[in-house]
Amino acid sequence: MIIKRHKTKEIQIGNIKIGGNNPIAIQSMAKVPTKDYRKTLLQIKNLEKEGCSIVRVAVKDEEDARAISQIKSAMRIPLVADIHFNWKLAICAIKSGADKIRLNPGNIYKRQEIKEVVSAARDYSVPIRVGLNSGSIPKIFRYSIKLRPALKLVKAALDYIKLLEDLNFTNIVVSLKCSNVLDTVEAYREIAQRCNYPLHLGLTASGFSEAGKIKSAVAMGILLSQGIGDTLRVSLTDQPEEEVRIAKYILSSLGLGNFGPEIISCPACGRTEVDIEKIVNELHEKLSALPHPLSAPSLKLAVMGCVVNGPGEAEDADLAIAFGKKEGLLYKNSKPIRKVLSVRAVDELLKEWTKICTMN
Ligand code: SF4
After folding, report:
1. Most exposed among 4, 81, 148, 306, judged by the fewest C-beta atoms under 10 Å?
2. By mean pLDDT, which of 211-215, 260-264, 291-295, 296-300 is the weakest?
3. From the alpha carbon of 307, which atom of ligand 1 is closest?
């Protein structure tokens, strides 16, 4: 199956472009006060190393907004300033070097204030993300319109977009985040039919650990598979780097990104005569420790517990192993090449892996 992406307007954010035919950008957010620029920068540097494309910081007051210039001078990827309630902070953030600002229509909605922000955004060529959340939907929509929650978000977004367009401003990105999967899917599907601005995907407050990751993967998987989405953030109650790692898994599982080796492993069953879980964990750890594992080509490596599915998976993988009792049969480019002792399997796989990567 080939995913046909929705055609969206191309938007420049600092040194990258989103929308159009550009790759889907992974975003995350610093989780320390922005005014503590050393800690913020440390998190941003870790995110850069993990492969994050765009980072957002919270701007609660003027000190946060001013810290952006110091942070920007030492970072590589574009920075988005997250603004709520106080429109003046948006202008201060723009003047401090923010590459994009996020405005929440739920708390910055007066025409004159938006006009001032638009004027600064235009002067500095900074895009505005119309960033709606189900938790802070504008009051007029929350209480007075009989629409499903997702459609209220869409209506609120379209009204805000119209306001920006009336000010002759179209440097826009849109997000409509809900905390549940079905509302999020409905909101994004609807807005994708109604405008061509790039869409930043995400669930708001998706949760912690497995629950948050699974909810995000389901929602974004559905949308991305339908060609919807130009950037994404997997919001987790976790370290920012984990958000990037999960986003990469989501994109690579749909063939929408190339982030390094993919390990396919069988779930194990009564036929398994080796400890597959231990072997796969060790393999994953050692592969991740290789220099620049993420820049390695996107190759597939299959680890199978027996010969039932081993040869079949080996056909689709660049490298594979199907275990017996004390040894496994190693396959390379669909062909069996040799038997290896199970206790040596990880090292042998890594040896062959390195050869394949060098050849590619
Ligand atoms: S590949 Fe073999 S060991 Fe693994 S789950 Fe399938 S049948 Fe069981």
Report:
1. 4
2. 291-295
3. 2
